[in-house]
Amino acid sequence: MARALEPLIVGRVIGEVLDSFNPSVKMVVAYNFNKVVCNGHEFYPSAVTSKPRVEVQGGDMRSFFTLVMTDPDVPGPSDPYLREHLHWIVTDIPGTTDASFGREVVIYESPRPSVGIHRFVFVLFKQKRREVVTPPASRDNFSTRRFAEENDLGLPVAAVYFNAQRETAARRR
C-alpha cells in the first residue's frame, strides 16, 4: 500500500494537506461518468463543473464515510495564503455506495483556478458513527487536518488528487 501513497507524497498532498496514512478503502472519483481522476493528471476546469461520482469500494453498508474536496493552492501555488479552499463536504456515505447516498454538508463548488497549476484533493475518512458536522464559516483557510480532528475522523482511508489550471480561450476550443 505504500506504493499508493507515492504520488500523494510527490504531489505534496501528504505533508501540506494530509499526514501519512494507510489506504484501506478504494475510492473512485469520475467526472462525466468516464473521466476517472488519477493522481496528478490534469483536467480542464470546463470538464469538472458538475460534481463527480465518488464511489466507495470497500467497507460495508454498516460503515459510513466522509468526503472532503479542497484546493490547497489558493490563490496561487507560489503563495497559497488562503490554503485550503473548501470545495465540497459529504458525510454519512454508506460503504459500497457513492457520495450521492450521503448528506451534502457543503455544496459542490467547481474548480476555477486563476493563477498557476492547482491541486484538487479528494479525501475520504471512515466515520466512527453517523456524523453531525457543522459546516465551516468560510471556504477559505479550511484545514482538512483540523476538520478531521474536530469531527473525530482520524486519519484518511483514501485520497486522490488532480491538477487544473486556468483555461485560455484557445484551450477551450
TrEMBL record:
Q: InterPro entries this protein is in?
A: PEBP (IPR008914), PEBP-like_sf (IPR036610), PEBP_euk (IPR035810), Phosphatidylethanolamine-bd_CS (IPR001858)
PROSITE patterns documented for this protein: PBP
Q: Which Pfam families match?
A: PBP
Where does the sequence pass through the membrane?
A: none
Q: Which family does the similarity line name?
A: Belongs to the phosphatidylethanolamine-binding protein family.
Cross-referenced PANTHER family, in alphabetical order? PHOSPHATIDYLETHANOLAMINE-BINDING PROTEIN, PROTEIN TERMINAL FLOWER 1
Query: What is the designated name of this protein?
Result: Protein SELF-PRUNING-like
